[in-house]
Each structure stands twice: as structure tokens, then as C-alpha cells.
Design a protein that fits this description.
363 residues; mainly alpha; ABC transporter involved in vitamin B12 uptake, BtuC; 15 helices; 0% strand; globular; disordered N terminus; transport; Transport system permease protein; transmembrane; transmembrane helix
Length: 363
């Protein structure tokens, strides 16, 4: 590596600097001025707060915002409307937590794997969690969401560790291609094992079906509180890896030239991803497209800098999940469409549009 290329790489990975000659690409854009990116982030926080309020008010029994405010500030146990609001609080909190976790983990996963199509499935998270839940139902007779969460988290964590271990074998370590191949192979194997169990047990299939769809309805505080410590730890780990991911995005050789221990950096980031994905999947089931679409969408506002991509993904992803959940409550009244289905219906065309625009796929 020449001295000039190393200098350029250091500038690309350092705060407040950029590779010479790139400043003119988007003059006056949000990518050029951190102040504009901060303003967009604040706007996203405001939108998220509005949706959180709407999540408490909208449903089969719609409530005015004034009633929601009274229920939060002057709760009356004898008031039926207040009881409805309080019953929706765990669902809303779970939407915020699971959405933020999936968005943050998806962005970090794309950075670690250097793969624009990376999502929780690429590390076997969804498959591992699903097989563990099926095993818990079939072998141990688990029948409650508070019981599923521990099996799902353990299964997701074990699957992710196995994928990383397999990809690490060989001289080059866990390269992006090996991570993708190991994840795809493990996914196929785990889902095959899961299918064998489900085909042989109708009772297991009936219980598993509710969790498999993915959603935040029907969850209570026991589910939220059980996953909260893991989510918090994973968020802290991943949010601190912005500069690491910027270095990895330049390629392993340049990252090593910048002083990064590539294997250790990927391992630390993968730990945070496992904590986030495992917890979110355990609490809400396998929700598709949130971790895939959101990092691509926020790059329109942030550019390729992961120090901005990560916090943006943390805030914008719950906007998608809560919005999908709210729409799902009212689109087929008096029934509901689970959030996991709505995110796929909303996220799929958005992702196709992003890919056609050609601006969201770059890492």
C-alpha cells in the first residue's frame, strides 16, 4: 500500500474529513453539512414521537389524543378508555425497541459483511431463533411468549456464533463472501430441521404459527422487560462501532493499514448484532425488511458514514415498524394484520424503488 493511499484512507475514516476530491459531489447537500444531518435526525425523532402517540390512540377502539394524554398523566382505573391506552403501552414500547434494534443491527450487519443485502437472515438469526422456539414447544411444551423469548434468543445467538465460526475457518478469516455462504447454508439446514418437526406435530405448528408471523400485538411487560437488558447492551456496542465500520467499508487491507484488527473488529460488532437481532426476534418474531430497507433509505440523508447511519437507523426503523403496525390495526377492522406482514408489504416496494434509483445500494 502506498503512502498516499494510506493517507487518503485515514482521511476517509477520520471524523470531519473526507477523501480529497469528493467534497464537490453533493455541494449543499445533507452529506456535506453535519448540521443538516442533525436536523434530519431531529425531524425523524419528532415523526417517531407522533407515531408513538398514534400507536396509543389508533385501533379497533379509536381514542382522541386528549384522552391519551389524560390516561398517561391522570390515570383513572375506572375509566375504560384509560385502560385501553395503558394496555397499548407495552405494544408501543416493543415497537420502538424492536424496530430500533432491527434497524441498528441491519445497518451494522451490512457494514460487517460488506453486503448491501445483509439482514438478520444472513447470520442465521431468524432460522436459529425459529428452530429453538419449535424445539421449546415440541420438546419442553413451552406455550407462552415469555417462554419463547429465552429459546429464541439462545437459538439466534448460537446460530450467529456458528455462522461466524464457519466463516472464520481458513486463511482469510470471516470474509463477506464466506459469511454470506455460511449463513445461507445454515439457514437452509435449520429450516429443514424445523420443517421436519412441524410436519410431524400439528400442535407444535399451531402454537408456532402465532410467533412465526412476526408482530408486536399481544405482548405484555414480561416480554419487554425480559429483552430490554440485551437490547440495551447490543445498542451500546453497535453505536460505538461507527468508526470501525467506516474502516471495514474500505476493505480489509486498508482497514489493517489503518491499524484495525479486522477479526476482532468484526467479532465485537457481531456480538452487538447478535444481542440486538436475537432480542428483537425473540420478542417480536422474525420481522422482515426492517433491517434491510432502513439502512439503504437513511443513506440518502447520511451518505456512507456509519457514524451517522447507525443513529439514523436506530430512529427511522421504529417509524416503519410502528407505522406498519398502526396501518395493520385499521386496514381489516375488526381484525388486524400482524406488523410482520405489513412491513413486508410496505418494505418490498420501497426497497425495489431504492434499488432502481441506484443510490441506496452502495456501502
Amino acid at each position: 500500500m502506498t503512502q498516499s493511499s494510506t493517507t487518503a484512507a485515514r482521511q476517509a475514516a477520520s471524523p470531519g474529513t473526507s477523501v480529497p476530491g469528493t467534497e464537490a459531489r453533493a455541494p449543499g447537500s445533507a452529506r456535506a453539512f453535519p448540521g443538516k444531518r442533525a436536523a434530519w435526525l431531529l425531524a425523524a425523532v419528532v415523526v417517531l414521537a407522533v407515531l408513538a402517540g398514534a400507536s396509543l390512540a389508533v385501533g379497533a377502539r379509536g381514542l382522541p389524543l386528549g384522552t391519551v394524554w389524560d390516561a398517561l398523566t391522570q390515570f383513572d382505573p375506572a375509566n375504560g378508555d384509560h385502560a385501553v391506552v395503558h394496555a397499548r403501552i407495552p405494544r408501543t414500547i416493543l415497537g420502538l425497541l424492536a424496530g430500533g434494534a432491527l434497524g441498528l443491527a441491519g445497518a451494522a450487519m451490512q457494514g460487517v459483511a460488506r453486503n448491501p443485502l445483509a439482514d438478520p437472515g444472513i447470520m442465521g438469526v431468524n432460522a436459529g431463533a425459529a428452530l429453538a422456539v419449535v424445539t421449546g414447544i415440541y420438546v419442553f411444551g413451552v406455550g407462552s411468549l415469555s417462554g419463547y423469548i429465552w429459546f429464541a434468543f439462545i437459538g439466534a445467538a448460537v446460530a450467529a456464533v456458528v455462522v461466524y465460526f464457519i466463516a472464520s475457518l481458513g486463511r482469510d478469516g470471516a470474509t463477506p463472501v464466506k459469511l454470506a455462504l455460511a449463513g445461507a447454508a445454515l439457514n437452509a439446514g435449520l429450516y429443514s430441521l424445523m420443517s421436519v418437526i412441524l410436519v410431524s406435530s400439528q400442535d407444535t405448528l399451531d402454537k408456532f404459527r402465532f410467533w412465526q408471523v412476526g408482530g408486536i400485538a399481544g405482548r405484555d411487560w414480561s416480554v419487554v422487560l425480559a429483552g430490554l437488558p440485551f437490547l440495551a447492551a447490543g445498542a451500546v456496542v453497535v453505536l460505538l462501532t461507527g468508526r470501525i465500520l467506516n474502516s471495514l467499508a474500505l476493505g480489509d487491507d486498508i482497514a489493517r493499514g489503518l491499524g484495525q484488527r479486522v477479526g476482532l473488529a468484526r467479532g465485537i460488532t457481531a456480538l452487538g448484532i447478535v444481542l440486538l437481532c436475537g432480542s428483537a426476534t425473540a420478542m417480536a418474531g422474525p420481522i422482515a425488511f426492517v433491517g434491510l430497507v432502513i439502512p439503504h433509505a437513511v443513506r440518502f440523508l447520511t451518505g456512507p458514514d456509519y457514524r451517522w447511519i447507525l443513529p439514523f437507523s436506530l430512529v427511522v426503523a421504529p417509524v416503519l415498524l410502528l407505522g406498519a403496525d398502526i396501518v395493520g390495526r385499521v386496514v381489516l377492522l375488526p381484525g388486524e394484520v400482524p406488523a410482520g406482514i405489513m412491513t413486508a408489504l410496505i418494505g418490498a416496494p420501497v426497497f425495489v424503488w431504492l434499488v432502481r434509483r441506484g443510490k441506496g445500494a452502495g456501502l
